[in-house]
Design the sequence.
């Protein structure tokens, strides 16, 4: 497949889209990847506008909260029952959550 | 008079005076749902039995005159992003179809305690991603004013239900206009409170930094009543504000003379529909007549608010939606998998809609190594500038006026093609959430038969002031009293 | 070419608070085997759940940071570490990234000799939450969330260690410190304390760092030593053969005695860290640090020095006493109450007393013998009211029952027999009953002396004063 077409030479190429999809555990085929690549590039190009704004040594908003030090006391509270939890679990044996074999190590 | 069109305030009066019972009131609304919802489709789940049980309990309370609150016996609905114990909660997504929470969101607990009656869960854009209610995995909700139009989103179902008498009030959630826009499109009142004013515990989160739960009601007084019940510090939500909750109705009726109304110059440049602009200008004249001082303010980083909003949204949403993996709850793909990774990928693939996939992929991209500084970090810095914008503006004025949306409700299917255009229509509502400030949307007129909404934006924790001004406006106008012809 | 090993250690220590890091669930997950009982929407990552920080975990992390000579960072921000794995319910772990609790600390190790003593720098100490537990079967895996969300402290050292001895010394010291501070029990078998080693080698004298490998799942000091030794040799061999070392994560196969490459590591670790939006920052001001500091117990190094100065013990002796805070405390309390010489106390404590504890497989918190009782016992021994054999007997009895020393002594009539007349009589009788042995001894078979001692001891049911017996026996065995 020819990806040199100007329309698709974009900020986020197909390979990047596949890489991202993998990171986020989504499966997309090449056709979808091309559509996403085009859409993403448009959107990201629009976001480049931010780089034009001078932020000097401004502190990021998420490091500067109005309140700090919100805590919980180290006191045990009642837990959820196993039945309640497993009520929504697709596959279980009454005790554990069950999933297909995990092969990759941490 | 139609019971289902009663305001909360009026219904409460009638309940207390025993002119009606909660069971009667609830039954009337349920009947309305049966009649109208097949056309409007505001509800994903109607909890008829549960509602009547709660109504009965409310009536007992009312009869015993014990522990009566302004919401006792009042039927309401919830946007389906709020966890309800024992009641299906989907967040508008296939990936949660069949999920039944085993706990209540804190706001639901508060409403339960107050004796309000839950009618059911409202339709929404999947995971709040959308501003038209066309992105629900289940079906579209229709605007009660014109059924071929969108009700706005993402709290479209909640707005449509209040507007058409399918609930006396509802709770929605606003991340970047999701309460206000549908309120504007449906001719009702919608409040995005100050960030942290209302607990988010149990709300199926999209953007932890922006999400705000708030009321959708027929008028400002009702809005104050509902906020009174749900606001306050929650030990289960580390971001909820410790500030005490004032008596919100006590400021209603006070004069607004001398208060300064700021008109941001950036909001009134090109972009608005002519009909919308005319309506907004008329509204400004009403405020002038009521004695408010009109002044010009500037929010210089208005244009930047959009990329800031979306960048942070994409990033946080991509992380918040990572827990949907088909293993512990929710949709799990049916095939036989040998490897758990395949189960994950397939479940997410089949469970998430396209808009969700697009946004979480973008979020992953902006956070990925090499791009974090340029995008996410940059957005957080510019966000500080936006916060400063509002701070400076509020030194010159007490409240800011803005249109809720540059257009009235568009046709279903009309704007779906181009994601970028969809994003641009958010311009008036997206700056408030990064800044954390509250904003009240209220009806201010019509354009070509469709409602126009306006916003009052205030400083942190200024809900009292917003209510005061909104109430004064509603005492002077009748827009909020007009109901859609369908009912 | 001679190569030197370059090793850094990453330690994960569960902070033994009552509750988990971000929710009120009971954190004591190792004392039960029933799965999915200590859970709630927060630690199982259900939609709508939100984390709230456990203050005690922060307090203890500051305590550890101070003990490890770190700077305590004023502004702490939590961050999301994003990746997918079935034991991570939210799809991200709440951890700390560039604003951890503590950084730039150090610990001295190998202090036995001035030549080997060195300082290991500690890069950082940060807080995070633990994952769920997985068990694997042939074609499925099971998940238990009891452990999910338990508070975890991660301690990262610089690659300052250049031998297995250094690593073991450092690891042991950290373990001891954590036990002293009451933060962690040090149980590696149960996974409460976990070690990961980063290993590379480089030519001696070279300052550059070569490619390193990471070994996980080292659940005992023994396997740590074996694995590190193996890996060092393997890497040196590779370089000697002209091969390169790829950067990878390895597991340690205990049975085969080899490290092995772990699958699925080709994927780059892009964790996409960003500040946790559900948790406001933590500002640790000076008064908070001072308050924590005031609760710092005397740490092993200081205690060692003080024991040497105050009690005149050798460094080896103080080491065994201070290896556990409980032992050191017991020793000191006994020393305070007892008039016996320090050496006596030390010998009995490290000898029979420890033996009793080990045999019963209990710890100091559970022993029925108080320092007061022990001191009394030792004093009776030192003043020769009882001999060492009797002392041992009484000690066993004290462990078996809860009885007071003096009661046991009088109940069992265990007073030492020191009366020379009585003993002389017993000795004379034994000698007269065993003339053959007497003759053999007098002829030169000196080993029979002990036999005679044994006979006297048996006759007196172990209560005879050995010194008096010795004097009398020697005298009476002389050729007349």
Sequence:
């Amino acid at each position: 497949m020819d990806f040199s077409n100007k329309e698709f030479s974009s900020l986020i190429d197909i390979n990047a889209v596949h890489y991202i999809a993998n990171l986020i555990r989504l499966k997309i085929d090449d056709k979808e990847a091309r559509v996403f690549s085009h859409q993403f590039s448009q959107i990201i190009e629009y976001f480049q506008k931010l780089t034009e704004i001078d932020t000097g040594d401004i502190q990021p908003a998420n490091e500067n909260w109005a309140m700090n030090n919100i805590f919980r006391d180290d006191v045990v509270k009642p837990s959820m029952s196993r039945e309640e939890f497993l009520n929504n679990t697709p596959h279980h044996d009454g005790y554990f959550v069950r999933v297909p074999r995990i092969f990759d190590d941490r | 008079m139609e019971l289902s069109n009663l305001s909360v305030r009026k219904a409460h009066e009638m309940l207390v005076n025993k002119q009606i019972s909660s069971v009667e009131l609830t039954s009337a609304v349920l009947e309305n749902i049966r009649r109208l919802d097949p056309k409007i489709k505001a509800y994903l789940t109607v909890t008829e039995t549960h509602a009547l049980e709660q109504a009965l309990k409310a009536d007992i309370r009312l009869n015993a005159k014990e522990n009566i609150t302004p919401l006792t016996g009042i039927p309401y609905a919830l946007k389906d992003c709020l966890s309800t114990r024992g009641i299906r909660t989907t967040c508008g997504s296939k990936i949660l179809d069949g999920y039944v929470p085993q706990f209540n969101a804190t706001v639901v607990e508060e409403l339960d305690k107050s004796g309000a009656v839950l009618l059911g869960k409202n339709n929404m854009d999947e995971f709040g991603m959308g501003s038209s209610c066309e992105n629900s995995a289940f079906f579209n909700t229709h605007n009660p004013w014109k059924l071929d139009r969108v009700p706005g989103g993402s709290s479209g179902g909640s707005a449509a239900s209040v507007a058409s008498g399918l609930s006396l009030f509802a709770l929605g959630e606003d991340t970047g206009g999701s309460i206000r826009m549908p309120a504007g499109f449906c001719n009702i009142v919608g409040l995005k409170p100050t960030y942290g004013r209302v607990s988010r515990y149990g709300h199926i989160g999209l953007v932890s930094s922006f999400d705000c739960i708030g009321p959708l009601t027929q008028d400002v007084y009702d809005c104050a009543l509902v906020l009174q019940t749900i606001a306050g510090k929650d030990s289960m939500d580390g971001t909820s504000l410790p500030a005490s909750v004032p008596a919100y109705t006590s400021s209603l009726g006070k004069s607004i003379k001398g208060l300064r109304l700021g008109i941001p110059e950036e909001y009134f440049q090109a972009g608005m529909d002519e009909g919308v602009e005319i309506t907004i200008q008329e509204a400004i004249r009403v405020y002038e007549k009521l004695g408010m001082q009109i002044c010009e303010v500037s929010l210089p980083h208005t244009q930047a608010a959009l990329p800031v909003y979306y960048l942070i949204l994409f990033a946080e949403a991509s992380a918040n939606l990572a827990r949907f993996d088909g293993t512990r709850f929710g949709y799990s793909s049916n095939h036989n998998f040998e490897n758990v990774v395949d189960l994950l990928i397939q479940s997410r693939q089949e469970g998430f809609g396209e808009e969700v996939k697009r946004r979480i992929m973008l979020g992953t991209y902006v956070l990925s190594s090499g791009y974090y500084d340029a995008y996410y970090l940059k957005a957080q810095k510019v966000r500080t500038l936006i916060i400063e914008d509002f701070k400076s503006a509020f030194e010159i004025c007490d409240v800011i006026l803005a249109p809720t949306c540059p257009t009235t409700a568009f046709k279903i299917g009309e704007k779906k093609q181009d994601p970028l255009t969809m994003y641009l229509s958010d311009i008036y509502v997206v700056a408030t959430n990064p800044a954390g400030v509250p904003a009240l949307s209220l009806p201010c007129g019509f354009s070509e038969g469709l409602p126009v909404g306006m916003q009052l934006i205030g400083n942190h924790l200024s809900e009292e002031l917003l209510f005061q001004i909104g109430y004064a406006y509603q005492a002077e106008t009748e827009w909020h009293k007009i109901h859609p012809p369908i009912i | 070419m001679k190569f030197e090993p370059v090793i850094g250690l990453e330690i994960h220590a569960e902070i033994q608070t009552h509750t988990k890091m971000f929710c009120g669930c009971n954190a004591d997950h190792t004392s039960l085997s029933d799965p999915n009982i200590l859970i709630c929407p927060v630690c199982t990552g259900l939609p709508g759940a939100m984390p709230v920080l456990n203050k005690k975990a922060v307090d203890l992390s500051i305590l550890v940071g101070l003990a490890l000579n770190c700077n305590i960072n004023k502004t702490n921000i939590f961050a999301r570490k994003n990746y997918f794995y079935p034991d991570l319910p939210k799809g991200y772990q709440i951890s700390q990234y560039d604003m951890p609790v503590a950084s730039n600390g150090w610990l001295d190790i190998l202090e036995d000799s001035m030549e080997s003593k060195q300082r290991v720098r500690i890069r950082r100490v940060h807080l995070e939450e633990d994952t769920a537990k997985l068990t694997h079967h042939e074609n499925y895996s099971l998940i238990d969330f009891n452990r999910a969300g338990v508070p975890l402290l991660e301690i990262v050292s610089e690659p300052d260690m250049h031998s297995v001895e250094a690593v073991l010394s450092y690891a042991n010291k950290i373990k001891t410190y954590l036990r002293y501070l009451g933060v962690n029990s040090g149980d590696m078998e149960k996974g409460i304390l976990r070690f990961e080693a980063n290993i590379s080698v480089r030519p001696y004298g070279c300052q550059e760092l070569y490619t390193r490998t990471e070994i996980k799942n080292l659940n005992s000091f023994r396997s740590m030593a074996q694995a590190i030794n193996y890996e060092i040799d393997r890497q040196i061999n590779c370089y000697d053969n002209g091969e390169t070392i790829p950067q990878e994560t390895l597991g340690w196969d205990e049975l085969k005695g080899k490290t092995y490459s772990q699958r699925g590591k080709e994927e780059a670790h892009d964790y996409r860290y960003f500040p946790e939006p559900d948790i406001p920052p933590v500002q640790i001001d000076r008064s908070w640090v001072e308050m924590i500091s005031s609760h710092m117990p005397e740490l092993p190094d200081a205690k060692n020095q003080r024991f040497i100065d105050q009690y005149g013990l050798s460094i080896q002796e103080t080491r065994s006493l201070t290896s556990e805070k409980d032992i050191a405390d017991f020793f000191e309390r006994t020393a305070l109450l007892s008039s016996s010489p320090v050496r006596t106390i030390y010998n009995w404590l490290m000898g029979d007393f420890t033996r009793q504890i080990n045999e019963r497989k209990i710890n100091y918190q559970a022993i029925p013998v108080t320092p007061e009782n022990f001191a009394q016992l030792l004093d009776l021994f030192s003043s020769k009211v009882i001999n060492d054999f009797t002392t041992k007997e009484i000690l066993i009895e004290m462990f078996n029952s809860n009885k007071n020393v003096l009661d046991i002594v009088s109940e069992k009539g265990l007073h030492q027999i020191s009366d020379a007349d009585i003993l002389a009589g017993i000795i004379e009788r034994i000698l007269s009953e065993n003339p053959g042995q007497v003759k053999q001894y007098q002829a030169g078979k000196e080993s029979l002396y002990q036999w005679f001692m044994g006979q006297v001891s048996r006759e007196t049911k172990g209560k005879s004063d050995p010194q008096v017996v010795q004097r009398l026996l020697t005298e009476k065995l002389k050729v007349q």
Q: What stands out?
A: Residues 420-476 of chain C form a domain with the Arc Repressor Mutant, subunit A fold (CATH 1.10.10).
